[in-house]
Amino acid sequence: MRKLILFYVFFLAVMPSAFAQPYSFPELRGYKTESRYPVYTAVSLRDFIDGAADGYVAFGFENVHVREYRKGKKVIKAEIYRHKDKNNAFGIYASERSPSFRYLNLGSQGYTTEDGSLNFFKDRYYVKLRTYSEDQKIINDLEKLAVRIADMLPGDPSMPSLLSEFPEIGKVRYSEMFINKDVLGHGFLEGAFSARYELEGASFVIYLFEKSGTEKATECVSAYLQKTGMEPDESQEGKYMLRDGYNGTIFLSWKGNRIVIIEGLAKDQSALAERYASEILR
Q1: What angle do CA 59, 62, 66 make, to 5 degrees?
Q2: Domain boundaries, the chain
Q3: Class (C level, CATH) for 161-280
Q4: Reported pTM
């Protein structure tokens, strides 16, 4: 009896993820909707997107619902990926975009590509639509469907708030990213937003971390200092220039629960690093 109760408790625990109820996908006039795909979870995602599954799971993937809209031989495929939170949904979305795409004011942000794809994210959801048809009417219908899905999905459509902390001067448009794990290849660096900059002949990347508290920030800073052969520093704010064996010269600054790392600048460009770090940590 006790084993039966434990099994029932386990079943209830996994049921929301493994047996999630489908979304109320919007209708599209003139199309038939097909639901021949199961709800894929982190355990089964490889059955759907084998080569890319690990990347999605790294961004807190929970499940994906899939629908096909058919009009004769023309097909529009819609996929709704649910992630742990907004930061992770933005992370996977940003990892698949390019500054060259045509961007849309859709959900939190979206874009279309020349090969018939339209992707966007809203809050914790990443949505991908695709058609192989080159018929402009079908492409227009795909865009209508995207708008309806964006309206259907719950959540806050604003961008992750920490992105607003990056200075605009020199920032490469649509270069922002979110790296959930192993930032700069280090396991102790997690949860960073980044943006690429081009200014004064220099090309560099700024990483911004916001930890849960000052103690967590100093632990992270001390781990990085020790990794580069320096003494740990438990101060609540500070600045260092490091020599990282993997990434070259690194400018490290922190204040309170925020950490700024700048990678790509030379030693003699410390004034530029100081300017940007000071503006973010003001």
Answers
A1: 110
A2: 15-152, 161-280
A3: alpha beta
A4: 0.90
